[in-house]
Every structure is written in C-alpha cells, then in structure tokens.
Design brief:
Length: 282
C-alpha cells in the first residue's frame, strides 16, 4: 500500500467539497495556476489547514511579484501551520517579479525560512514540451540539495516511471520520487487537461491501444487502480502516489493498491521521503 496525497485546484467551491469528501489529516496539495494567482492558492491552503488537513501549497516562481510578497506568504504559512511547499517555475511566460525559475525561488525560501521549509519539485518522466532533458536533469541536480522529494508529471505507464527513476539515479539525483497519477477524472476532461499540460501524447497512445486502452479509459472516467497496482509491483516502487484529482473527488481510490486516503502524516517531508509501513518492500 502506498502513502498518498491529493492535488486540488483552488476553485471557489473546492473547500466545502473537500470537507465533505476527504478525511481531515489527509495531505492535500493546492495548485498555483497563472490565471488564478498565488493568493487563491494561499487562501485555499490556509482554509484547509484550519480544518485539519496537512496542506502543501504550490508556489510558481514566475507568479510571485516581489520578495515582500514571498515573505508574506511564508508568514501566512507559519500562521496556518504549513511546513511544506511545492515549488515550480510556473506556466506564466514571463516572470512578474524577481524569480525566474523554481531554483531562484527555492534559494530565497531556504534563506527566509532558515531552511525549515520542506520543498517538493517537479519531475518529467516523458520530458517537458519546451525544456530539454539535459536542462531538466541539471536543474534537478542543483535543486536536490534544497528539496525533499520529486513529484512526477501525470503519467500512465509503470515502465516509464521505472525508467525515469533509474535515469535519475544514474545521473546522480537521489530524491524520493512520488508518481503523479490521474484520479477518477471524466475522460474528456482528462484528455483536454493532459493535452494542455503536455502529456497528451501518452494518454492518446493509451487510448489508441485497443483492448488495453478500453480498459484504462473505458466508461466515463479514467480508473487509476490498475496503474497503481502495477507501480506497487515494480522492483523499486515509487515513494508514494500523488493523485491529480482535478477536483473530481467523487470516487477517490480506496482499494486496488492505493489504500484508503489516510489521515496520517505521509512522510514525504523527511529526507528519505517514505512512510516505510506504507510502501511495499523492494
Ligand atoms: N502548477 C503546477 O503544479 C506545475 C507546473 N509545472 C510547469 O512546468 C514548467 C517547469 O517548471 P519547473 O520544473 O519548476 O522548472 P523550472 O522553471 O525550475 O525550470 C527548469 C530549468 O529549465 C529552464 N527553463 C524554464 N523554462 C524554460 C523554457 N520555457 N525554455 C527553456 N528553458 C526553460 C530553467 O531556467 C531551469 O534551468 C513550468 O512551466 C511549470 O509551471 C509543472 C508541474 C506542476
Ligand atoms: N505545465 C504544467 N502546469 C501545471 O499547472 C501543472 C502541470 N504541468 N502538471 C501537473 C499539474 C496539473 N495541473 C493543472 C492543470 C490544469 C488544471 C485545470 O483544471 N485547468 C482548468 C482551469 C481551472 C480554472 O481556471 O478554474 C481548465 O479548464 O483548463 C488544473 C491543474 C497543475 N499542474
């Protein structure tokens, strides 16, 4: 059984939906989209933290307008009891402030927080649409001293995750890897969003695979259970599952490998990054 986390989008109606459907104590990460701005991420994160969730806001470097704004965000984290952030560059074409990349922002956070803030970073098992593989790897090698773990982009292939982890280790990146898995999201929504974030080709590949594709994407929603079970069977499984819910919270996986969305600390914060009792032995 894997340790698990849920990712949500800070839409207006999401806090009551989470309160209704997700047990307090669950780890929830809150995205930071260019059209929303970081305030919405922080407002939602603080509200959920106040209701007893272990919350991880995403901070996009290019969406932060000033060092003062960052200091305010860190103060808000302190007030809400938030001790971990997910730091990315951000999909904004141009930076609106002093930080160009996740690395820039991580250095400033480490300094302002006296290195007490835990930070996750993004990994791309199938590459990134506009950043070369070599540059992504170099960026991870640099960031690993500031980070606690990697969360992968949404992926649909266990062997791709396995190969990605092997390449990371070969190239000297030692951080625990959490596999990004799509939740039970309606198939049309999933196809649209996967295309938008640059992983559409792998999803289209699956949908074009006849019987297997029908199993994976048949019915109205994607079903992640088989993929999660296959990840658990890898010789070296990932440290945990990061479930991209896209706010579809109606059928969170409770069986088939993920285990119940649990209410305890998931262990991603510590170096080593796994809740040993929750992860199958290699
Ligand atoms: N909002 C979210 O939750 C997530 C967002 N993303 C998006 O993925 C992208 C990358 O983010 P990070 O992994 O944090 O990378 P990053 O912004 O830290 O960049 C990694 C490396 O690539 C370079 N780089 C960045 N953008 C580039 C570009 N357009 N062309 C060439 N080189 C570039 C940077 O200088 C750095 O060396 C961003 O667009 C980010 O918003 C990825 C995962 C999650
Ligand atoms: N390049 C990239 N950007 C991201 O923001 C991102 C990734 N990759 N990879 C993993 C997750 C997935 N992300 C996403 C992507 C799209 C929506 C989304 O629902 N977009 C809605 C608009 C939501 C709104 O404005 O209220 C859409 O309809 O496109 C949410 C999270 C965030 N993360």
């Amino acid at each position: 059984m894997f340790a698990s986390r849920l990712e949500i989008i800070p839409t207006q109606d999401i806090v009551p939906a989470v309160l209704e459907r997700v047990p307090a104590g669950t780890t929830i990460t809150v995205t930071c989209l260019p059209q929303h701005g970081v305030e919405r991420t922080m407002d939602t994160a603080s509200a959920l933290a106040g209701h007893g969730f272990n919350v991880v806001p995403h901070l996009a470097a290019r969406s932060i307008s000033s060092r003062g704004q960052l200091a305010g965000i860190l103060r808000a984290c302190g007030t809400a009891g938030i001790t971990e952030l997910f730091v990315i560059g951000g999909d904004k074409g141009q930076s609106g402030g002093p930080f160009e990349s996740s690395e820039d922002l991580m250095r400033e956070i480490a300094q302002l927080s006296g290195k007490s803030m835990k930070m996750g970073v993004a990994g791309y098992p199938e590459g990134h649409p506009s950043i070369a593989d070599g540059q992504l790897m170099e960026s991870l090698r640099i960031k690993q001293d500031l980070a606690t773990h990697i969360v992968t982009q949404m992926c649909f292939s266990p062997s791709t995750i396995a190969e990605y982890m092997a390449v990371l280790r070969r190239d000297g990146v030692k951080l625990p890897v959490w596999a990004g898995v799509a939740g039970a999201v309606p198939r049309t929504k999933l196809l649209r969003l996967a295309t938008k974030i640059g992983v559409g080709s792998s999803l289209r590949f699956i949908t074009g695979k006849g019987a297997l594709g029908m199993t994976l994407l048949g019915g109205t929603s994607y079903q992640p259970e088989q993929f999660i079970a296959d990840l658990a069977d890898l010789p070296v499984p990932p440290a945990g599952i990061h479930l991209y819910t896209f706010n579809s919270l109606d059928s969170l996986p409770e069986a088939g490998g993920l285990g119940p969305i649990h209410g305890t600390s998931d262990g991603a914060g510590a170096k080593g990054g796994v809740r040993s009792s929750a992860v199958p032995s290699p």
